[in-house]
Amino acid sequence: MHPALPTIRTTCPYCGVGCGVLATPNASGGLNIAGDPQHPANLGRLCVKGSALGETLDRRGRLLTPRIHGRPARWNEALDLVAKRFSDTIAEHGPDSVAFYVSGQLLTEDYYVANKLMKGFIGSANIDTNSRLCMASSVAGHRRAFGSDTVPGLYEDLEQADLIVLTGSNLAWCHPVLYQRIAAAKEARPEMRVVVIDPRRTATCDIADLHLALAPGSDAVLFNALLAEIAARNAVDENFILNLNGLEEAVQAASQVQTAATGLSGDDIRRFLDLWIGTERVVTVYSQGINQSESGSDKVNAILNCHLATGRIGRAGMGPFSVTGQPNAMGGREVGGLANMLACHLDIENPVHRNAVQDFWQAPKMPEKPGLKAVDMFRAVEDGRIKALWIICTNPVVSMPEADRVARAIANCDFVVVSDMMAQTDTTRLAHVLLPATGWAEKDGTVTNSERRISRQRRTLPSVGQARDDWRILADVAARMGWSERFAWTTPAEIFAEHAALSGVAGNLGSDFDISDHAGITAEAYDRLEPFLWPQSARKRGGRFFAEGRFHHPDGKARMIAVTPRAPQPTSAEHSYRLNTGRVRDHWHTMTRTGISPRLSRHLAEPFLEIHPRDAETLGLTAAGLARVSNPHGASILRVLVTDRVAMGQPFAPIHWTGETAPSGRIDVLVPAVTDPVSGQPASKSATVAIAPFRPAWYGYAISAKGISPSCEYWARAAIQGGWQAELAGAEDPECWMNYARLLFGLDDEPLTVRDRAKGQIRLAFISGGRLQAALFIAREPVGLSRSHLGTLLGETNPTDALAGRPGSDRPDQGALVCACFNVGVNLIRSTISENRLTTVDEVGTALRAGTNCGSCRPEIKALLAGAIHGN
Ligand SMILES: Nc1nc2c(c(=O)[nH]1)N[C@H]1C(S)=C(S)[C@@H](COP(=O)(O)OP(=O)(O)OC[C@H]3O[C@@H](n4cnc5c(=O)[nH]c(N)nc54)[C@H](O)[C@@H]3O)O[C@H]1N2
Ligand SMILES: Nc1nc2c(c(=O)[nH]1)N[C@H]1C(S)=C(S)[C@@H](COP(=O)(O)OP(=O)(O)OC[C@H]3O[C@@H](n4cnc5c(=O)[nH]c(N)nc54)[C@H](O)[C@@H]3O)O[C@H]1N2
Ligand code: SF4
Ligand SMILES: [Mo]
Question: Is there an atom of ligand 2 within 6 Å of 661 CB?
């Protein structure tokens, strides 16, 4: 062990829970990771993604130098070129001919600089962010209701509530530490109730007393029914409603709803209404099942309406709660990183606000109107209105709706700059100039989590190659465009101090976001900065908002919005399935980081389609076979996963696979760019599609210690211990399997080949120095091999084993991985449960350790327990 390298307190770079992480540099140049017991968000807990951070810090795949048209370049050359092309384009076509597309994963300091450069100096509001795909409807809903983008509550409300409603949120997988906090609170106070509203039966339903599998898109109907019932039962808070406008109109609109549209039984709806209305301390948590909709803002307001009418907001254990997805979605909103915001929650269209920010920045010009929102921005790229585009910290070729169209638009743009930490992504591939950014462990700054808590992210490792911090790259370009004095910071601390000072100006104009206590922060104080809740100013420090009924509209009142629910785009005879999309437990978005970790890749290793057994039967789909999903926008091929977790007609597919990991699994090629008219957020969860079996001539499974470069209709690659695996399927047999395998693995050697002509199976193994280097298994049916076993054979010395493709008697097949921390598979858990007649998750933990570290797999273990049948 390295002697006494100090532990550094930092923050997890994944979800919006914003867990504190203890990172200790180790002798091998990496980090040992633990939860920070002192951080208020997680109190020492981490989920599996956070725990595996140490496995994702590899140099492999990193972008090490700037590149111009693919060739390595020097920083000066690259920065000069970016500045010149942006300046020339602006000079010739005006400021609105350029755009930045940035990310809720940037640090506040990076984001601040990007926003200042575009809005204050270039003089356009064409800066938008992947938060448009994520939080825009919540922002719009908050601003309509409260007059500001304010999250009223705190995480501790989740523990203090008597009822938690989770709608459009798979908290168990997407905000695991908050889920665990709720699960622990419920265990301590079993009278606490949890309702999950989701068309799908997710892992989150594990703690639900009631699961409402409503019809997709019908949330506003349900919450309107709730508002109407609140009014009918006189459950409004007579004092609080004095602080509201629009109550009558909202109730009037709500009373029109027909609850049949939810597809729920009258009994279930009544239970929900009784519970909600009868429980004072209620928190309604919502996320992408609400936001990502063609009427997401209305859905948000339908929820806010109920909390406003009952005055259940801003007090202990109650309130609406938009849980943010990305680590700094909130910080991005605070700096004004969306095209329709200014800075510090000020309004771009308000001349007083605009002038105040312009004075503060000493900016030459400011846009008077909002810029282009993400979908419109890429349309403008497509039709040539935007001629220079800078994409930072996001992968739109994968994550934007109509992704193929977005890819074409970027490919045809005159000048595209991409800043990323990784060399090869679907988006970096299209860059004219590629700029290497430092990653999580290498950068200093701040992030804001879902409860408005600002935490330091601290540098824990030296930067890789020539990578530079995003704020510095932006400031260097700004300087080259002629604004060096206004972009002259030398540290993130100085940027934070400026941001905090500007927030004081905003606070004087009535903004909720005011952290002016930190305006003059020194480098030392910034180094020591403890996690704190905003606001932090002479006016207000931390705490909840709105309990006293004062809001940020000019008259100080909140607005209830009359909501007329809208159904999603109808399905048609040809495209009769509604495709739901979302996340899996162990991967993050486009997997550029989590995809490196074998541990995180074992839970779900390929893109899949969850489909109801009756639909599968109708369509002739078989479990573990492949399905082709298509509509006029594009087509995907996905592995079939037959399950009644989804309802008939409502298949689900994950968003994570890319051209790098499974080119036929990119799901956003199918999602139409239909957006919410208020927020501009795309409806990412309701594409209409046709589904048919994809029947390849052959199925394959490959493992290799080096690379695998498949060429066939379907493939999905994943990291395994000591190398890679790939699932394959092809429409036609190649002429020679040996040549195919050589190309696949980039090996010239003679493989050991075993054929079973009767079954049509072929197995080829490349052995070198007595060790297994690579193997390919081909069959006419989906290859029925033990992946968990084969995945451990690379480098092993017994090739017969490799060709057998199943565990020897001394090595039981673990099956799909459930507990990623202790490597425990589904088969072992099942057999241990039945042999020992285990009945609780804790008993499984005692027997196998599964579920005892990060706890992310506890809902799945519970489901296995529920499915276990103990004989007498
Ligand atoms: N493991 C993991 N965690 C993550 C991320 C990740 O990539 N991986 N990403 C982070 C980010 S950026 C975000 S934004 C969050 C997202 O967190 P979530 O919003 O919780 O995640 P999703 O899986 O996108 O969608 C949530 C649920 O919405 C449901 N849904 C679909 N349509 C409807 C509907 O009409 N009504 C209702 N009520 N529900 C519906 C889906 O079935 C799904 O279960 O997760 C964050 N955390
Ligand atoms: N159908 C469908 N589509 C969706 C969604 C859905 O639920 N359904 N969800 C949407 C949502 S909520 C979101 S948030 C988006 C997410 O989609 P994206 O933002 O496109 O996904 P990421 O993989 O997080 O992209 C981050 C990129 O930044 C790079 N990176 C990481 N750290 C840094 C850094 O410090 N600096 C720089 N410069 N680069 C860095 C990573 O390597 C990666 O390439 O997807 C959206 N798309
Ligand atoms: S819940 Fe997991 S992914 Fe989210 S911040 Fe905490 S450790 Fe990171
Ligand atoms: Mo997100």
Answer: no
